[in-house]
Amino acid sequence: MNKHLARLHFLAQQPSRRIIGLMSGTSLDGLDVALCKLEGHGLATKLTLEHFATVPYTDDVRHRIREVFAGGPNGQVDLEYLTLLNPWLGLLHADMVLACLREWQIPATEVDLLASHGQTVYHAPQHQHQRPDFPLNATLQLGDGDHVAVRTGIITLSDFRQKHIAAGGEGAPLAAYGDYLLLSSPKEERLLLNLGGIANFTYLPRIGQDTSTAFSTDTGPGNTLLDATVRAHRPSLAYDEDGKLAAAGQVHTGLLQALLAHPFFTAAPPKTTGPELFHAEYLRQAQMQSGTEQLGLQDLLATLTELSAASVAQAVTQAFGRHPSLTVYASGGGAHNPSLQAALQRYLPYCRLSTTEQLGILPDAKEAVLFAVLANEAVAGEPLSIGAGRQRVPAVTMGKISLPG
User: Fold this and answer.
1) Rounded mean pLDDT for each run of 10 residues along the chain, 405 residues in total
2) Is residue 146 marked as binding?
3) Cross-referenced Pfam families, in alphabetical order (predicted)?
4) Which residues in the chain are classed under CATH 3.30.420.40?
């Protein structure tokens, strides 16, 4: 038997596995690296986060990704450039992992598996692209898993979203699987709210209830428009730290209404979207419709913060009624934004807002941790069906396996 296949067979039978989860989101701030010890599988999964780091991207890395991100800055992508970027990102992520392991003084041979999400550069669910010649959902993540595996010497699982699509899903969000296994409670219904570039939440029924009622949905822009607007007006800044600029501004009601008029917001959850839809042109069109082309940066950020909060609340009320009373645990960059958190509390007054740190998972590490969980399930678990509406898919395991040699 191939030694790597024998290794996988051995790992599947062990009581625990040491897995590194990797996540690079639409905010393009860097690579999240989470070294996890995972015991068991399924609802018996127990996780210990041994180490975590966000390795920041340089301006050059961000520039390279933005050349193809969501269709590129001019709606044109160089095919040769895209082809070269795929292995280049794989090697970059591999080197970042190795640097983390050196800093943590852990040999790569002591890591059992590596779970690499890759970098999403385009997300195209059918309801968004609406091309009759391609009646299917699609998504594209770069950062080739074979390059990661060979460079690190660690068996790598990657390209998780394709199986979800192949089985009838939209490829995003995938959080329902990991959230359900790690963070379900027998005592309370929970809403796990991820405030990344695109905001999404997972609803978790109490353990013992029907798993088909659990689901994940995107809600709209989280930080993507906020960060892009800051960069456009203040090139020296990557984002609005602690929401200070937004806090100094005033929400423009006319612009907010124009932004919320997009049909995505009235579509029933679960649904998916991305920066392909919520981009600079979407904002520009709303400003033209509302006559706010000259709106100052602070007022613009205040309005976009309100948009993020209002669209989360709208999706929550669509799913759970006008006065939802849920415990909400936030993660992602927006969990650190007091302006956004305050707006969310205004829109969801009957909900108790907290962060996933209260559940034992650092808000910044949560998505990387969830991909480690998916890798653990692929190797040692049983397929599990979770979902509702058009997102519901048959029980599947996700992740393509790349062997180091």
Assistant:
1) 93 97 90 97 93 96 92 86 98 98 98 97 90 94 98 98 88 84 90 94 84 85 94 90 94 98 92 87 96 96 97 94 89 93 95 94 94 96 70 74 95
2) no
3) AnmK (PF03702)
4) 3-174+365-402, 178-359
| 31 annotated to bind ligand | yes
Does residue 292 have a known ligand-binding role?
no
* Model pLDDT, residue 238: 84
- Phi and psi for 83 in degrees, rounded to 5? -65, -40
Residue pLDDT, tens place only, 268-316: 888 888 888 898 899 999 999 999 999 999 999 999 999 999 999 999 9
Q: Looking at domain 3-174+365-402, which CATH architecture does it have?
A: 2-Layer Sandwich (3.30)
Residue 28 among known ligand-binding residues: yes
- 156-158 and 400-402 as β-strands: parallel, antiparallel, unpaired? antiparallel
Residue 364 assigned ligand-binding role: no
186-204 pLDDT, tens digit each: 888 899 999 999 999 999 9
Q: Is 25 annotated as ligand-binding?
A: yes
Confirm whether residue 210 is marked as ligand binding. no
Contacts 24+ apart (CB under 8 A), 105-108: 106/35, 106/51, 108/152, 108/153, 108/154
* CA end-to-end distance (rounded Å), the chain: 14
Task: Identify which of 115, 93, 222 has the alpha carbon closest to the alpha carbon of residue 161.
Answer: 115
Architecture of domain 178-359: 2-Layer Sandwich (3.30)
> Cα(169)–Cα(388) distance, rounded to whole angstroms?
10
